[in-house]
Amino acid sequence: MPHAIYGPPDHSLETIRFSLRLPTRRNGRVTVLEAQGDSSTKRGPLWVYRATWSESETTASLEPADQLHWLALTASQDRPWSQEAFNRAITPSGYEDVPLPY
What we know:
Strand content: 15-25%
Number of domains: 1
Number of strands: 3
Oligomer: single chain
Strand order of the largest sheet: 1-2-3
Order of helices and strands: EEEHH
Distance between the termini: 56 Å
Radius of gyration: 18 Å
Largest sheet: 3 strands, antiparallel
Mean pLDDT: 89
């Protein structure tokens, strides 16, 4: 609810939290990447992301590291303020096959 004097709160991205759980025998050799965008003016997170990889899905753990780098770059450049904005930022635009004029 907007404040009577200050108006609606500014839920802008202030903090990005990353958690990368490396594969161990105890967790079934699964790598888990979790990311969360926070704002000091909102109780819950602005957006949340979670991805998992089994041992057979990774090549020397490059995929989780690349994903973490890509998420950090996307969040710092686009500054998504909601889950919908985050989903738009990480989803590539559709490919349109435009016919050539000749």
